[in-house]
What we know:
- With 359 residues, this protein is an alpha+beta fold.
- The protein has helices spanning 16-23, 27-37, 59-77, 143-155, 174-191, 195-209, 211-219, 222-227, 283-288; strands at residues 6-9, 53-56, 91-100, 106-119, 123-135, 158-162, 170-171, 240-244, 253-262, 268-277, 301-311, 317-328, 331-342.
- Helix content is 29%, strand content 31%.
- An 11-stranded antiparallel beta sheet has the order 7-6-5-4-3-13-12-11-10-9-8. A two-stranded antiparallel ribbon has the order 1-2.
Amino acid sequence: xxxxISTYQVKKGDTLQSVAEELGISAEALKRYHNTYCDLKxxxxxxxxxxxxxxIPSKNQIAELxxxxxxxxxxxxxxxxxxxxxxxxxxxxxxxxxxxxxxEDIKINYSTAIKLNEISDRGFIAIVNNSDFKKKGQSPDDKxxxxxxxxxxxxxxxxxxxxxxxxxxxxxxHKTLVKKFENKRADLESFFIGDINxxxxxxxxxxxxxxxxxxxxxxxxxxxxxxxPEMDWFxxxxxxxxxxxxxxxxFPVNCRFITEYNFENPENVEIxxxxxxxxNCSLQELLRGLKLEEEGAETLSGDIELKYxxxxxxxxxxxxxxxxILWHEDEQYNKHTLLLIAKQEEEKPKKKYNTLxxx
Length: 359
């Protein structure tokens, strides 16, 4: 097969970089192309010293090289394929809202602190603490909310196991979590007195002792699903199917996802993951958390959009915007949104020193 070869005559002052820039490709790509087709005596080393002419790609090949470079450039700006200790900021501010047909809207704000501790053979221990809960801008003052928060605070922070591929896989020392509640229960009962409160504590204790059940409670929330994704979500080039919890404490449903990108911002990358329910299930099944054998039930549809903003250089997670919408009989039944923004550490004011000049 004959290959048509074009050459560039090297002039005084030319460098490998300047010739490559004129062609619109990287110096490394030009060097690699030239060395593929040149004689051994004309191989390009670190510069063009001793090189009289450079073999250059055709216009079509240049276009292909530019596309490859573009994709490589994009890939370098995305988070790593595996989780690392610097992926998360220490603290995030979270706003979560739920709109359900026929019910009062719910809006809460809280802070989420994350710390990753590396364990050599199992990935990471993710220590997570949710605090400073506010409902409609105010600290909850109704008894049920206060009781629920007090119970959750008694076992916080919670330590999870997260492999390098991402996604919560279990608790780190589940028995320690249970022990924390046992140690604090007496103090809680001295404040929350009465048979109703005691029954609540009994139920809470029973639930946290069931390790798999408790893990599902966390994993089925929108917060933990978006906060601990599979890391390769950020780099998938084709559609894929995966289970996702549309409603907390229900069962996961099979959804189809696709990943899109926005690289226009000079500092950040937007990774948009769009999904839709593909599994046949009804609203009643999801609300009950149980699949039924009934046929002819109205099939539920739903849309998911998860928008991750990461820094191009540090690859840190700066923001997540999540939205899950359920449609029932062509009407919006439920809309669950979550906004998670990294809390930037305030810079400490620099000390000012006054120079005293003797007069």
